[in-house]
Amino acid sequence: MARAATRLTRFNMTSLAAGLAFLYLPIVILVIYSFNASRLVTVWGGWSLRWYHEFFNDRAMLDAAWMSLSVAAVSATLATLLGTLAAVGLARGERFRGRALFSGMLYSPLVMPEVISGLSLLLLFVALNAERGFWTVTIAHTTLTMCFVTVVVQSRLTALDRSLEEAAMDLGCDPVRAFLMVTLPLIVPAIVAGWMLAFTLSLDDVVIASFTTGPGSATLPIRIYSEVRLGVKPEINAICTLVIAMIAVVIVIASFASKLSSSQAESAAPL
Amino acid sequence: MSARRIFARPARLAAIAPYLWMVLFFLVPFGFVLKISLSQTAIAQPPYTPVFDFAEGRAALAAAFAQLSFDNFRLLLQDNLYILSYLRSLVVAATSTLILLLIGYPIAYGMARLPQRWQGVAMMLVIVPFWTSFLIRIYAWINILQHDGLLNQVLLTLHIVSAPVVWLSTDSAMYLGIVYSYLPFMILPLYATLSKMDASLLEAAGDLGASPRQAFWLVTFPLSLPGVGAGALLCFIPIVGEFVIPDLLAGSNTLMIGQTLWLEFFTNKDWPVASAAAVALLLLLVPPLVLYDRLQRRQLEAGR
């Protein structure tokens, strides 16, 4: 009888199933229609790879895809480096002057509307007279995504047993050596998960990239966005499916990485 | 000296590079937004007249302060267009947050009651769409909602409607898109508080004669309020400034403030007014941000 209070009711199961169906059904439909042979998006004309073929012959789209992938790879790497350093400072630096400002600057971009971040960075680039293109978008994405990396790595560092580091130092390691030999190997899974998160966030962004890019260097989301405004095109379905497939691979790798680290805490959960 | 304090020094040194990066690319840009929001519009490249130049030194700076222009902010207050779009942003964000709460709560509740080993799987399933491109998920809905899309086909086949319904470019489509995109942000904090709840409290309520419904409203719901607050703010704040979803799914009658800012910037090329709108939007978001920060801190202290 006591168990009745916490039993899984039919209502619980239904709402859970309906919620998951709501989250996944549109994506499944999109993927299925990307294999549609018909030009009309809504009429089923049999299975075909026609739209994938179209995409691989679309020079402008391929250029945009290449630009997006390189921005995502470079900015995710920079963000992981800076974000990990920031996480170390916050989790191990104890109290220092300017700490509140530092954590404030790192946490506010997580909820800051993208139009504001994009506009402010663009005004900076204009004031610095920087040529807009690959590097300005990369810097903008690094700034945004390093905050997410910091959150992921910091929560891992906080959950870590500090007596290991202290033992290493008691045995004669200097702090830097203790960090490199003991702490770093333990937080590698969180760092990997942070990189993956930064990569997918950069690959996804349309607003900040629109503000900070220059003429002639559109990213894939910018291209998709301008096509979508004109209506549904089967080729876009194919591109979206490819992006989803790539992100799925990234997620699988990231979840393996976080599984490796979950022996101590659940902290590696993305966000 | 303890090992911790020896460790702290190099850790602080490590923070220098990210610190400088954030000052240069996060803090300083806001200075430029503020500066340009106070300048005059000009037909030039870049399209504004700088009010003052940091390079000219202190005297020039002081002289420039005398002629700062609040015209752009005055314009925001006088022109109905801006006031309406602020109001609309607030209404849309509040309404969406309420819908998200109504949908997200039962899902999070169901997750928290799953057997332990299934909870991780369910959480993963909720997080995965968050990783999938947000633009693609909105596009997926356009596929379904368009004139001859799947939804209308299903409705026509089932004879629920006799002619295709216009779904795109309506507020319902926009709300659907927002709810769809932000659902994980609502579910996760709710699930975090619901799953930590002590089940014996509910058993005690049952033993004392409360019906399951009474137990829910008297025990479970009040205890989950911190999660409700966190989820609501986590959704409300970014939705106020949302641009892509209303632009792709909503009609073009009244714009949300994010759209107005975009329009001023990209179409009208009025950078000063766009900057003033950004400053105003930021001011609007300060109260919920402070509230969120306080809520998080209180929960951290309670956890200790």
Overall radius of gyration of chain B: 25 Å
Instruction: State mean pLDDT of chain B (0 to 100 scale).
Output: 82
Shape of chain B: globular
Succession of helices and strands of chain A: HHHHHHHHHHH
CATH architecture of chain A: Orthogonal Bundle
Number of helices of chain B: 15
- What proportion strand of chain B? under 5%
Terminal CA distance of chain A reads 38 Å
Can you identify the CATH superfamily of chain A?
A: MetI-like
- Strand percentage of chain A, roughly? under 5%
Kindly state the number of beta strands of chain B.
2
Organism (chain B): Bradyrhizobium macuxiense
Pfam families (chain B): BPD_transp_1
Family (chain B): Belongs to the binding-protein-dependent transport system permease family. CysTW subfamily.
Protein name (chain B): Putrescine transport system permease protein
Relevant terms:
A: 271 residues; mainly alpha; MetI-like fold; globular; disordered C terminus; B: 304 residues; two-stranded antiparallel ribbon; 15 helices; membrane (chain A); Putrescine transport system permease protein (chain A); transmembrane (chain A); MetI-like (chain A); MetI-like_sf (chain A)
Structural features, described:
The complex is a heterodimer of chains A (271) and B (304). Chain A is mainly α. Chain A has helices at residues 10-33, 50-56, 59-92, 99-107, 114-127, 134-159, 163-170, 175-204, 207-212, 220-230, 234-261. Chain A is globular and about 70 Å long. Mean pLDDT of chain A is 84; it is low at 263-271. By secondary structure, chain B is mainly α. Chain B has one domain: MetI-like (MetI-like fold). Chain B has a two-stranded antiparallel ribbon with strand order 1-2. The chains are: A mainly alpha (271), B mainly alpha (304). Chain A: It is a multi-pass membrane protein. Chain A: Belongs to the binding-protein-dependent transport system permease family. CysTW subfamily.
